[in-house]
Amino acid sequence: MLPVISATTAQGREVVRTLSTRRFDLSSELEDSVREILEAVRDRGDEALVEYTRKFDYQGFSKEAIRVSQEEIEKAYSEIDDSFLDIIRTAIANVTEFHERQLPNSWFMTRRDGTLLGQAVNPVDAAGLYVPGGTGGSTPLVSSVVMNGVPAKIAGVERIILATPPGEDNRVSSHLLVTAAEVGVHEVYRMGSAWAVGAMVFGTRTIKPVNVVVGPGNIFVTLAKKLVSGMVGIDMVAGPSEVLVVADDSPDPHHVAADLLSQAEHDPMATAILVTTSNHLAEKVDAALEELTASLERSDIARKSLEDNGALIVVPDLEEAAAMVNSIGPEHLELAVKDPWALLPMIKNAGAIFMGEYTPEPVGDYIAGPNHVLPTMGTAKFASALGVETFLKRSSIISYSREAFVRDADSVIRLAEIEGLTAHALSIKVRK
């Protein structure tokens, strides 16, 4: 399915260069369309929401249906099985346990002259979670509810809302509704795409605005989040999913191939890369990819992803593999080697790192505990996973005594005058 490429050849160097400089280009024409949608929601509120939802999701949609009722949420519990409830509660518990350790504290420091300095950490007042319905509501991303909602709850956000598009029958998945209730979401709304983002940012008669918008979505959601960034906080402008597997000669080729496919099936634009010290393993993985792809429900998507964006790269040693990882900065990194802990100190740039052959990326997607909302397109070189801090803000606290003021006054005046800001200097002089 894929050629095996040596990293030491001109072709190999070009592949690595392309991966290291990859970008997620967003069409200016699409951006103009999304801007128009956002402006319509800002200006016409519920009316625009109903109009777009009727056009793209459910023709019989009405204003009264925008908010999912408590009765619908309670009914959803009767429509799911106990095993799902047990699994989702386990996932919530694991994600909660991990993210509780991220919660920063407010702090203060004092100086002998009476100066008190500190930092107050507070949650935002309201957060909006966007969750795609997926294929007319048939593939609800319940894991996204957990990964976005749990950190907001731990941060102490008083109002957490969820937006998801209705299916063709105007219903919202019972699995989504139950998961939202279990996480602690306060309000659920039937609305999708860019108009949902607009409603959460600007507010309507039915929906009060929020301070932070997070969650995955299609290109329209991504563009909408990009355009409203600065009006509200967002998690990130995410590109297509990525996985890079570093392997020696130890892993089962079918394990590696399956892990590459776990990301390739997301999107034709997804990236799946194997970097290995073993030419023999690369060839076996290629054969396994051909075999396993045929068995997938989303085989067409996975095949196109691999053919357009996949690569099997052979490197001389694991040190070279680590250097390649740091140059690429993948979203998901699997270290499928005999001793992943020895390799870990060499890794600087990756969204999440999966250690060893029995830690495939999907355990992180669903149940392990760390967040699965991760930086893509090389942004792992400077960005981090979504976490509790996404929903927090920090305020500096400064309290000077008279003694401290007198000590620093002339220095402040001097710096202000150098900058030509005489009113700054005056604020100090009048107190002297």
Q: Indicate the radius of gyration in whole angstroms.
A: 25 Å
Q: Estimate the strand proportion.
A: 15-25%
Assign an overall shape: globular
Helical content stands at 40-55%
Number of strands: 14
**Overall number of domains:** 3
CATH fold type of the largest domain = Rossmann fold
Average per-residue pLDDT, rounded, comes to 95
Question: Number of helical segments?
Answer: 17
Largest sheet: 6 strands, parallel
Uncertain segments of ≥5 residues (pLDDT<50)?
none
| The CATH superfamily title of the largest domain | Nitrogenase molybdenum iron protein domain
CATH architecture of the largest domain: 3-Layer(aba) Sandwich
Strand order of the largest sheet: 1-11-10-9-12-13
Q: How far is the N terminus from the C terminus?
A: 77 Å
Report on the structure:
The protein is an alpha/beta fold and 432 residues long. It is built from 17 helices and 14 strands. The N and C termini lie far apart (77 Å). The chain has 3 domains: 4-24 and 239-368, 3-Layer(aba) Sandwich (Rossmann fold), CATH 3.40.50; 28-107 and 121-234, Rossmann fold; 400-429, no CATH class. Helix 6 links the parallel strand 4 and strand 5 (159-164). Helix 5 (82-100) packs parallel to helix 7 and helix 10 crosses helix 11. Strands 1-11-10-9-12-13 form a 6-stranded parallel β-sheet, sandwiched between helices. Strands 6-5-4-7-8 form a 5-stranded parallel β-sheet, sandwiched between helices. Strands 2-3-14 form a 3-stranded antiparallel β-sheet, with no helix packed on it. It is globular and about 80 Å long.
